[in-house]
Amino acid sequence: MNTSLVLALIWMVLANLRAMFPSKDNLWRFAYGMIAVGLPILAYVWWENGVWIALVFLLAAMWVMRWPVIYLGRWVRKHLAKPKG
């Protein structure tokens, strides 16, 4: 197992462990930090292992960090919707 996959697995374990504990801000600050750390790890996984393994990591990360993805989807739909009237 190469370094990028080890880092990706550590990221997944940390994200899952932190999600188990309650937080006053509903884990948003933690989510922003994990996204900021996860994107370079995703690029590193892509560079070392190729697009398919990176896609698997991306889907797993989106599963763990689903609320930021849901809110991003809502924001994009809101801004791409045609104005009524």
Tell me, what's the shape?
flat
So what's the oligomer here? single chain
Low-confidence stretches: none
Could you describe the largest sheet, including whether it forms a barrel? none
Could you list some keywords that capture this structure?
mainly alpha, 80% helix, single chain, transmembrane, 85 residues
Task: Provide the fold topology.
Layout (H helix, E strand, L loop, with lengths): L2 H17 L8 H22 L1 H14 L1 H15 L5
Helix pairs in contact: 1-2, 1-3, 2-3
Structure description:
The chain is an all-alpha fold. The protein has one domain. The chain is built from 4 helices and no strands. Helix 1 packs parallel to helix 3. The model has no long low-confidence stretch (mean pLDDT 89). Keywords: Membrane, Transmembrane, Transmembrane helix. InterPro entries: DUF2484. This is DUF2484 family protein.
Short description:
By secondary structure, this protein is mostly helical.
